[in-house]
Amino acid sequence: MSEEEFTDLKRSEDLWINHCEDFLRRGFIPKRWNELPEYIKAERMKEYYIQLKRRIENERSN
């Protein structure tokens, strides 16, 4: 992966994470992992979605 591709991927991930966090602040749940576009399913996003799932489950149990 070239540096430009890496930068584009990181920017896409950052935008998606911000989008998800905005959804959560407004009381909505973002798309599930299996509904994400393939290009965004990188390791960093996988880790984010694991943490996101835990946060949502903790919120529901409180």
Outline the biggest β-sheet.
none
Tell me how many strands there are. 0
Mean pLDDT: 92
- Percent strand: under 5%
Pairing-aware structural class of the strands and helices? Answer: mainly alpha
Whole-number count of domains: 1
Distance between the termini: 43 Å
Shape category: elongated
Radius of gyration: 13 Å
Could you list the spans in which at least 5 consecutive residues all have pLDDT below 50? none
Topology order in helix (H) and strand (E) letters: HH
Question: What is the number of helical segments per DSSP (H or I, 4+ residues)?
Answer: 2
Q: State the helical fraction.
A: 55-70%
Architecture overview:
The protein has 62 residues and is mainly alpha-helical. Helix content is 68%, strand content 0%. The protein has two helices and no strands. The chain has helices at residues 3-25, 43-61.
Give structural attributes.
0% strand, elongated, 62 residues, mainly alpha, 2 helices, 68% helix
What would you say about this model in short?
The protein is mainly α and 62 residues long.
Secondary-structure blueprint:
Elements: H1 3-25, H2 43-61
